[in-house]
Amino acid sequence: MTFPSDFIFGAATSAYQIEGATGRGRSIWDRFCDQPGNIADGSNGDVACDHVHRWQSDVELMAGMNLNGYRFSFAWPRLFPQGNQQSNAQGFDFYDQLIDTLLQKGITPYATLYHWDLPESLGDQGGWLNRDTPYRFAEFAEQVVNRFGDRVQHWATLNEPRCAAFVGHLEGRHAPGLKSIASALQAAHHMLLGHGLAIQSINRKDLDLGIVLDIKPYYPSTASADAQKAAQQGDGVFNRWFFDAVLKGQYPEDIWLGFAEDVPEVLESDMSIINAPISSLGVNYYTRSLVEWDGEAPFPNVKPVKNPQGRYTTMDCEIFPEGLEAMLVRLNEDYSLPNLYVAETGAALADQLENGQVHDPLRIQYLNGHLKAVANARKQGVPVTGYFNWSLMDNFEWGHGFTQRFGLVYVDYANQKRYVKSSGRWFAEFIAEQQLTTA
Ligand code: IFM
Asked: Is this model's pTM higher than 0.85 or not?
């Protein structure tokens, strides 16, 4: 595996999942967690990893693992507790200090403007179903970039609009907990519109501006024509719907027709706004989907099946690094891509803390396999410039609460102590070796 000397090896987090609530306003996720039954262990983000108090030692941990990149998100309700009316100076100071410290340590910040914690006041006005929200988001984005754009070069507007829209508005497992396909599609459209409007309002050619989309390759489980049709539909909804919108300024026609009367309301100029030029694209890859045809299911007619030979994480994701390579190569063939970076990939595993140590050999294999996939894709000409592991440390995994551990660093939630796992040490050595060979 070889990577260029300026390749970014980092780890990723998001505000709601690690910071804790001290000093910020409420978001739709606080409300969602308050409703009994929504979170597997009944927990919430009130304390999470207490990063808002422990950020300095967390940056030390990053430096100790030789990371040269850190992807984090701004909590909108920390910067503007009520939406956009009034800013919170302490919130801005918090990120100022975090960014300055990262830079002092030689860690390049990759900032995400929206990782799902919409201010509750905007949620009360309809959240992403309200066409006003994308405009509020663009205002927010402009103000944040005005403040931090002198030090942060790399910006993503949204993290995984597909997941926020579909899991939050169709499956009901994420905030705001709705369950209709029409809502999911309208929310997704407004998020994408917010992305385009934000790129326009930020209007900075000197900065790297983009978005982070989640990707998942769909494989037919048999050679039947039906299974192939299911894979094509699944791919269209999960991948093409978002990539075509952002990179081509259109929704794919086959999928638009499939959604029939549930399609979102799209105004005339929306698609050209969504197609605003971007200089980078982050992709989040966790697994593939193996599917068969399901004639009973509402569109898409997809039924996921398990691979009997597959290895699965505790979140039931098949570990399949080949899918990352295939997807990167395919995106490069199908689209005219800006720089790409893998903004997230990672495994939830049943980590155990024993005598101050966490041995997670499967995560080491996972990292090795996915880094190889990226190196292979690069050899085939895919412009990948960075790789971020999800996550820096164990954290609040949304509807799963604290039951899933994704970190390179183990967090003992009883006392907030951190322990670098074997995988964190492995990654540190891997990065050091890369730095030696490219020096
Ligand atoms: O924890 C999430 C993250 O917030 C978004 N991408 C997927 C991760 C793991 O499920």
From this structure: yes
